Amino acid sequence: MSTPRSHRRHEGSAARPPASPASEPCATGRSGWRLRRPSVSPLRLVLPPAVSELISAFDRVVDTTVDERLRGRPVIDRLFYSASALGDYSLLWHLIGTTRALGSVHDQHQALRLAVSLGLESVLINSGVKSLFRRTRPEREEHHLHHLRLPRSSSFPSGHATSGFMAATLLSDGAGASTPLWYGLASIVAASRVHVGIHHASDVVVGALIGTALGRLVLRVWPLAPAPAGAAPALS
Q1: Which of 134, 136, 149, 231 has its CA 20 to 30 A from that of 42?
Q2: Helical spans, DSSP H, in the chain
Q3: What is the distance between the alpha carbons of residues 90 and 8, in angstroms, rounded to a whole number?
Q4: What is the pLDDT of residues 58-115, one digit of tens each?
Q5: pTM surpassing 0.90?
Q6: How many CB atoms sit inside 10 A of residue 76's CB?
Q7: In degrees rounded to 5, what are phi and psi of residue 131?
Q8: Residue 18: is it exposed, middle or buried by C-beta count within 10 angstroms (0-12/13-18/19+)?
Q9: Regarding the domain delimited by 47-221, which CATH topology (the fold level of the hierarchy) does it fall under?
Q10: What is the DSSP letter of 43?
């Protein structure tokens, strides 16, 4: 077992969104905007102490495992940093939807449903759910070296995970054998957020659950007619 890297984050040390005046002290981020650091994690105010400690322990175990076994390996780093960048603003899923829109009328309807759903999901998660928690993000230095976008929003839940798993659920509608492909892509994008040190593992797990639930809700509210007989499900 390798020795943990000295630049590993100290959990809960960096806050992104503006907090209440009592959430001091402040520090200036690399981009010049002000960071407010709550003295107590907001999650502790809504969770029983025992549950909060279990979540923190889970996050520490996952981060230590990733740090010791995955981070610093060029191929793995390249995969996860690329996946994390492609997940910004749901770019990967919009590209897939646009490509599918070039196919049949059924594929065009699926692409439209995906695009609208991603837009609504972004508003719900970023302007709604995240503002209720304001969880502090992990603190790492590597993403600066890779020019990775550092979000200012709350760490909880992971927007990459919610959008990814919602998109996978919608893309899997009638997809048949290609269903594992969509969930595999969503898993890589979601896991990348832990690898690059921008989310806690629990942020990603909860985000994946929320995304799957949102996807299933969309399937119920906005069902599409099955693809015409003999038409192969689009893979891209």
Answers
A1: 149
A2: 49-69, 74-87, 91-100, 105-122, 130-133, 142-145, 159-171, 179-195, 201-221
A3: 27
A4: 999 999 999 999 998 999 999 999 999 999 999 999 999 999 899 889 899 999 999 9
A5: no
A6: 14
A7: -70, -20
A8: middle
A9: Vanadium-containing Chloroperoxidase; domain 1 (1.20.144)
A10: G
